[in-house]
Amino acid sequence: MAQLGAHALGVPRDLVELVNADTGQTPDSGVQGASRATYWVGNAVSGAARTLRDNINGTVAELIDCDPAELVISGKEIVSSQQPDKRMALEAVASLFDELEKPRKVAEFFDPSHLFPPETRPRYTPHFVTGAHLAEVLVDTQTGQVQVTRFVAVHDAGKVINLAGAEGQVEGAVLMGIGAALKEEYLPNITTGFRDYILPMVNEIPEIKTIFVEVPSYQGPLGAKGLGETAMLPSTPAVINAISRAIGVRLRQIPATPERIIRQLIDLDQSHTLGNRRVE
Fold this sequence. Notes:
This protein has 280 residues and is an alpha+beta fold. The chain is 32% helix and 15% strand. Strands 6-5-4-7 form a four-stranded mixed β-sheet. Strands 1-2-3 form a three-stranded antiparallel β-sheet. β5, α4 (163-182) and β6 form a beta-alpha-beta unit.
């Protein structure tokens, strides 16, 4: 959000501070999360930043006697593109707004419902995202132990705003999916804490390759779409499908613990399958 705001405002990223969960600073806008956050909140942030930029340009233009349209923010200054000698430091602008008793706060609401004809609702949503995951597993059919050896995650998140953040989102989500596929299970009155709720260990993290297919959204901020729960949801089925293909038995319960894998092999008379199989 800070990057989107900085881009729309035209200032360096380090001049934008993101304030979280402060009802004194932000109006009530309801809940926006998951894969909708970048699309909905990003558009609102960009719109607010553009409004603030226009307010700043209009005020500065009056003082330095130029057309607001020719003002650009360069570094930490506002400069006239036609008359470079006419400029003002951004720090001075903040004080100027106080002196002139002009509001420094703007609010922007973004509701995409007006962008689509009523007959398309609710069948069409503007914040859709897509992805595909591929898991490679090594299954010991004598012990039921499973090792995820490689993982490939491909996502169309539109224009990726923050590459490092997007890669971290996918990698963390993949690990969540692996945990759900192999280890994590809540049993009432039995699972009482993290001692009983087993998570993947660091040494169980596979090689993860993340690929972004950037197809920009014409409605998203800077062409972005989103990258929320879609990064996690395909992970568990990918692992379970790989295990099922490796042992020749369709698993229909998660997590795929060694005990459940062996039970499936025995029940379907597959216990003669010895050794290891590696599949994708």
